[in-house]
UniProtKB/TrEMBL annotation:
It comes from the Bacteria. Residues 2-140 form the Aspartate/ornithine carbamoyltransferase carbamoyl-P binding domain. The lineage of its organism: Bacteria, Pseudomonadati, Campylobacterota, Epsilonproteobacteria, Campylobacterales. L-aspartate binds at residues 77, 161, 212. Residues 147-287 form the Aspartate/ornithine carbamoyltransferase Asp/Orn-binding domain. Pathway: Pyrimidine metabolism; UMP biosynthesis via de novo pathway; (S)-dihydroorotate from bicarbonate: step 2/3. One of its GO terms (molecular function) is aspartate carbamoyltransferase activity. The keyword DNA damage does not apply. This is Aspartate carbamoyltransferase.
Length: 294
């Protein structure tokens, strides 16, 4: 049985197969290949895009979705998450989608289940389905020709699980990852080129990925205000100019902090395309893990 905890759980060939299925799901009407299957979503952190994307993907494939309200679950009565998941597993679901603030938590649940676990985000560690939909968006834009492309991931690269998954996944497909962040948000590694300001590298880029400042993950205040941060890290039309660059963001976007209002309207900004692609990618992942689990 296969799980999706991190992007390395799928080989390059498996990822390309997922992309092929996602491409078909984008073109076709809903079907019932997962009719009779039950998918449980278990989100211990707030989510709009990821949770609804999984649920819409599942329903478009004919599956039933059970979304557990963690606030009113037995966890609020002191039950451990391991017992919660073991009890859910005893009800024989076909997949469990988990988001949790603790790094490594989805990995630790694998021994308590008889169905695939899909990591919908764990702390600062990983967000594999987001990275896969990001790569798919890039690949579709460049007709599969990703080798040699350069991306700058801009913002809180230290705390972002999206940045973490993307910096592990994108190089496997020939994309050079560069990180742009203030010193307080820098990723502590020499594995990637790092810059303080995107203007240092923008003329070399094919892709920019803007990130949301992960304020809820900070113990210290690094900027007087988000507007102060935005002076150097907001992606604007003035910054991008007429360059042939596409702009991504995992959402939610802090307008005029991460990306300017004007740039969000620019056709080079692919934020809503990412959302559309996310449903198709998650549908393809559900299909793969559920139908191949035996």
């Amino acid at each position: 049985m296969q799980h999706l905890i991190r992007t390395s759980d799928f080989s390059k060939e498996e990822i390309l197969d997922i992309f092929a299925d996602a491409r078909e799901f984008l073109k076709s009407k809903p079907n019932e290949i997962l009719k009779g299957k039950i998918i449980v979503t278990l989100f211990f952190e707030n989510s709009t895009r990821t949770r609804s994307s999984f649920e819409i993907a599942a329903k478009r494939l004919g599956a039933e979705v059970v979304s557990l309200d963690v606030g009113t679950s037995s966890a609020s009565k002191g039950e451990t998450i391991y017992d919660t998941v073991a009890n859910i597993n005893a009800m024989k679901p076909d997949a469990i989608v988990v988001r949790h603030s603790e790094c490594g938590l989805p990995e630790s649940l694998k021994g308590f289940v008889g169905c695939p676990i899909i990591n919908a985000g764990d702390g600062r560690h990983s967000h594999p389905t987001q990275a896969l939909l990001d790569l798919f968006t890039i690949s579709e834009h460049y007709n599969g020709e990703t080798e040699g492309k350069k991306i700058a991931i801009v913002g809180d690269v230290r705390n972002s699980r999206v940045a973490g998954s993307n910096r592990r996944l994108l190089p496997r497909f020939g994309i050079e990852v560069n990180l742009v962040a203030p010193d307080c948000f820098k990723y502590e590694s020499d594995d990637f080129k790092q810059y303080n300001n995107i203007r240092e590298i923008i003329d070399e880029l094919d892709i920019i990925m803007s990130l949301r400042s992960q304020l809820e993950r900070h113990n210290l205040t690094y900027f007087e205000s988000l507007n102060e941060y935005a002076k150097d890290y907001c992606i604007t039309n003035e910054l991008v100019g007429d360059r042939d660059i596409i702009l991504l963001h995992p959402g939610p976007v802090n307008r005029n902090i991460d990306i300017s209002d004007e740039m969000l309207k620019d056709p080079r900004t692919k934020v809503l395309t990412q959302v559309t692609n996310g449903v198709a990618i998650r549908a393809a992942i559900l299909k793969k893990l559920i139908l191949n689990k035996i």
